[in-house]
Amino acid sequence: MQLRRSSLKCRSILISRQIIDLATELNISLDPDAVRNIVRLGIESLNQETELEHTLTKLEEEKKRLASNFRRVASQSLQLESKCVGTRGRFGTISRDNRVLAMHLCARSPRGKQEGQLRDELIQKYILNYRNT
Amino acid sequence: MNAGDERSSTHKLKIPRDLYEEIGSHEKIIRSIKVGLLSLRATSLERENADLIKRTEDFEIHIAELPHEIARFQQLLEEALKDRKTLEKLDKKR
């Protein structure tokens, strides 16, 4: 391949800045092999330059619209995500507090049947069945 | 654009001689390079747009799920707050 490249006979032509800019934007090198592929693509293309420029304008406009919509949706998602994390965090804090309070209750005897039932339910919920959400 | 600007805005490009001879015209080569690059740009933009659509859809799915998740945690929080009041009340009775 190296031998082929070095033996490749080339001819220099002048091209406009627009072509260089377009290649730079696409991150495409304009070495003789790449130029060969680009020229083939250009020949095989069913579209004319003006049609392609029109298509590109439409695609650029579409990209702007899609990017704007993406930013809006991403921001909405971020807000909801933040609200969800906040609610989940607060629930976690209160649950841990409740677990500590339920542990305190374990150390004492209930006064009456109703209090005893309530105590057992809360101990069951915050100590025996406790799991972090 | 004056002659000086014109010169500074043009660049030399090496074309394989066999390709040049096959096509036979300087203008045709320039036009083919431009059309080729514009085609590549169009393909690249189509991919970028498809990627934006996909990423937006992913966020929309996430947005649709979040209110249910928030409501679930809100309900759990309300229940936990109610339990705390009860636990505090039972703790004070000691």
Task: Please give a quick description of this structure.
Chain A has helices at residues 2-7, 17-25, 32-44, 49-106, 113-128; one strand spanning 10-16. With 133 residues, chain A is mainly alpha-helical. Chain A has a domain at 13-45.
Topology diagram in text:
The complex is a heterodimer of chains A (133) and B (94).
Chain A: H1 2-7, E1 10-16, H2 17-25, H3 32-44, H4 49-106, H5 113-128
Helix pairs in contact in A: 4-5
Chain B: H1 3-8, E1 10-16, H2 17-23, H3 26-92
Which features would summarize this protein structure in a list?
heterodimer; A: 133 residues; mainly alpha; 5 helices; B: 94 residues; 7% strand; rod-shaped; disordered N terminus
Describe the structure.
The complex is a heterodimer of chains A (133) and B (94). Chain A is 77% helix and 5% strand. By secondary structure, chain A is mainly alpha-helical. Chain A has a domain at 13-45. Chain B has one domain. In chain B, 85% of the residues lie in helices and 7% in strands. Chain B is mainly alpha-helical. The chains are: A mainly alpha (133), B mainly alpha (94). At the A-B interface, strand 1, helix 2, helix 3, helix 4 and helix 5 of A face strand 1, helix 2 and helix 3 of B. Strand 1 (10-16) of chain A pairs antiparallel with strand 1 of chain B.
Number of E-type strands of chain A: 1
What fraction, in percent, of the residue positions of chain B are helical?
Answer: over 70%
Tally of DSSP helical segments of chain B: 3
The separation of the N and C termini of chain B measures 93 Å
Average pLDDT of chain B, rounded to a whole number, is 88
- Main sheet summary of chain B: none
Count the domains of chain B: 1
Protein chain pair with the most extensive contact, residues per chain = A-B, 76 and 60 residues
Helices and strands of chain B, in N-to-C order?
Answer: HEHH
Q: Show unreliable segments of chain B.
A: 1-7
**Which structural class should the secondary elements of chain A be placed in?**
mainly alpha
Range of helix content of chain A: over 70%
Q: Identify the quaternary structure here.
A: heterodimer
Shape of chain B: rod-shaped
Number of strands of chain B: 1
The coarse silhouette of chain A is rod-shaped
Q: Helix and strand string of chain A, N-terminal first?
A: HEHHHH
In whole angstroms, the N-to-C terminal distance of chain A is: 61 Å
Radius of gyration of chain A over alpha carbons?
A: 35 Å
The main pleated sheet of chain A reads as: none
